[in-house]
Amino acid sequence: MDKSKMRRVFKEKRDAADNKGKDAAILSRLCGVGAYLNARAVFTYVSVGSEAGTRGIIADALSRGKRVAVPKIIGKHTMQFYWIEKIGKLIPNNMGILEPAGGEVATPRNDSIFIVPGLVFSETMNRIGYGGGFYDAYLAGSSVIKIGLCYEFQMVKGLQSEPWDVKMDYIVTDKRVVSK
Question: What is the CATH number of the domain that holds 65?
Answer without folding.
Answer: 3.40.50.10420
